[in-house]
Write a structure and sequence with these properties.
Length: 289
């Protein structure tokens, strides 16, 4: 699908954006690591086209996450972006397994409305960061969504591709995070992961049931990180009475199904923190339109 030539990204003609469903999940779970030649990995790039926005899917997403009807929710854009991410990471040029890859942080920034019925181009670039002292490897991903040459949205993400070696030293306690005024709270039912999978297409087993999570090495299922961000974005819009134009998130702890997530004001007016069980699970910044 994608290759790098002498460290430079190879470019192919844009292809139709593949669906995010059971077939892609199976490909993700079955991808295996391959031997890696020594040296620095060059960036990977891809380009996919989305023929048009699916208004019905957008409306179902908005209703499920609590957005007001009308405009495309900012966090909805991660759904097609995630499809571009997974299709690019499934390339033979990406040398590691995808099962167990960890979404660390994400930023979504809207630039202009998408013209109705206009094909969209999703251009993705993946850069490999140098290994940390522990051997951990992170990847920076940037996807630009454009229509007729005009930038519609930018999504930047960071993924942990290779876990580092533990030093054996005891972990220090996390810095205390003060809880500000409560903006919203929501209870995650045991079926929340499956409900979000139906509107997002992300059927990762760690989010679905207890037995499927255990098959993947987790003691219990957790909610999708982008579900947490979506609920956060919708609540911030409701509280402000305005659309959110950009939002960032750093995922710091999993949110288990059956738990209650509490969204609070952060240390600054443009910041927020999501707690679960009294522990900060996500935090970030936002800007209103």
């Amino acid at each position: 699908m994608l290759e790098t030539i002498d460290g430079a990204p190879a470019r192919l003609a844009p292809r139709l954006l593949p669906p995010m469903g059971a077939g892609m999940v199976l490909r993700v779970l079955s991808k295996r690591a391959r031997p890696q030649a020594p040296g620095v990995l060059g960036p990977l790039t891809s380009e996919f086209t989305l023929p048009a926005l699916h208004q019905g899917q957008i409306e179902r997403y908005a209703a499920a996450l609590g957005f007001a009807p009308g405009a495309v929710p900012l966090t909805w854009w991660y759904l097609p972006v995630q499809r571009a991410h997974m299709a690019t990471l499934l390339s033979d040029a990406f040398p590691w397994r995808l099962a167990g890859i960890v979404h660390v942080d994400n930023t979504l920034s809207a630039h202009a409305p998408a013209p109705p019925g206009t094909p969209l181009l999703l251009a993705t670039r993946i850069d490999f960061l140098p290994p940390t002292a522990s051997g951990a490897v992170y990847c920076d991903l940037e996807t630009v969504v454009s229509a007729n040459g005009e930038r519609i949205l930018t999504c930047t993400s960071k993924y942990l591709a290779v876990r580092g070696q533990r030093s054996g030293k005891a972990r220090g306690e996390r810095p205390a995070v003060a809880a500000g005024a409560v903006i919203d709270r929501w209870l995650l039912s045991p079926s929340s992961g499956r409900a979000y999978a139906r509107v997002s297409g992300d059927w990762n087993p760690i989010h679905l049931t207890r037995w499927s999570a255990r098959l993947m090495g987790l003691p219990a299922p957790i909610i999708h990180g982008m579900h947490t961000l979506g609920r956060t974005c919708a609540a911030l819009e409701q509280a402000a009475g305005r659309r959110v134009a950009s939002i960032s998130v750093r995922f710091t702890a999993p949110v288990a199904l059956g738990e209650t997530a509490v969204l609070t004001q952060g240390a600054q007016p443009d910041r927020y923190v999501v707690f679960c069980g009294g522990v900060p699970a996500a935090d970030g910044a936002f800007a209103l339109a």
